[in-house]
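Morning!

As promised:
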Amino acid sequence: MKKWKLSMFVMVFLLMLGVMTACNSGSSGSSDDSSGDSGSENTEAEGSEGSSEEVTITYARGKDATGATDAIIKAFEKEHPNINVELREMPTDSGKQHDAYVTAFNAESSEIDVLDIDVVWPAEFAQAGYVLPLDRFIKKDNVNLDMYNEGALSAAQFKGKQWAMPKFIDAGMLFYRTDMVEEPPKTWDELISMASNLQGQNGTEFGYLMQAKQYEGLVCNAIEFIAAYGGAIVNEKGEVVVNSPDTIQGLKKLVEVATSDFVPQNITTFTEVESHTSFIEGESPFIRNWPYQFSLANDEEQSEIVGKVGVAPLPAGDEGSAAALGGWMTAISAFSENKQAAWEFVKFMTGKEGQKIDAIKGSHAPTIPELYEDEEIISATPFFGEEGFVQALNAAVSRPVVPNYQEVSEIIQIHVSKAINGDVTVEEAVKSMETELKEALK
Ligand code: GLC
């Protein structure tokens, strides 16, 4: 447990350091310097006077299937009887969610006060002036930033300011049915053979579930295969290195899995929701998903496989196992008319109390290290203290972190999808990615 904790934080720190460097370097070319800074200095002060007047704030996030969000809101409202939190469910598909925010904030809409942002968005949202810098609130309330994992904290920094508070860390993992699988597969080839043997047993329909729709989740699945075989999309220097034999090998394995008989025929329509639903309905012995899958699979109200779920690192390719690094943070809209109340909610949700509820009810991995010593959390989500989790986190690979990440992501999504659909070969896909990514990142 001690060793696990240490390695996890070292890993996340190192990865996020990369994120931070990329964010900061992205800022040098920014032409819209003032929008995120001076504009918000004023707005930040507005409405910051404490008030007992009743206020309703709107908190936007993708649908939370685990019920953790409702529990957090309830606990917050109990502590702050004058603040009501209205939950606005955004599309679960992270890309669609991103676009919905961009549309709302470009129209300077004040409808959303608080929002969760994906780990790949802060540079863009800060630069565009969509979210408020939180530094003054943090200072005024003496929020101890040292209690946070440094990497997760720095992922929400841009131009020396804190634009969001880290909420949870995600890493892709393999979940399996303990009533069907004794030893989880160590390699992708083992997974392929086990998935095809187990398909149809114990009432299952499939052997493996993943996210293969053309969207952000496909990028995560793809980088896991690519990294497991030693490939990469960009290197540490930000150079496009996607056209390599290793990347080709990794993507060929992805295509082999995604076009196999043991995944649902319509796997190219599967996001997290379709895949987790099928898994909790008992339709597959294996699924690749994020940590929340554990709590969902053990939710008696929704799941048919309660108590039958194991967690392991994703299978390895030639170069070992690799997990995509994900996660979410919480920000305040620059257009919010209830900034102080919004901050109270952000502070609570991303603080110890909120993260504890999220870890227990939603099996979301906290960004506050000391919560990994919390007995209630470990007893609800034992894999936070297990070696498999350590390994998955240790292997987590970040996506290219650049202010125009959406463009980069779309390029990857389109060409990986084409390869899965058989419209192009994997070699052709990486060649197109190379050309287009070089253009997008130059
Ligand atoms: C999870 C991750 C997020 C990622 C998304 C892709 O929500 O936390 O970082 O972008 O999945 O679907």
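The longest strand covers residues 323-332.

Hope this helps with the figure draft.
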